[in-house]
Amino acid sequence: MSDFLTGIAFFLIIEGLVYALAPSILKRMAEMLPQIPESQLRASGLVAVALGVAMVWFIRGA
Question: Which residue ranges run through the membrane (predicted)?
Fold first, then answer.
């Protein structure tokens, strides 16, 4: 459970840095989001999940 909470903490740190360091870029990306097809968003999300799972698997295996 502590690993899960640590992962959430890292997520919050990274998200906070994006908002703090590049708010204008984040706003522009949010404006472009409705123009991206749902299938592309879904595929990108699945790729991100797969990469995350692979990273955890490799890190835990080491």
Answer: 39-59
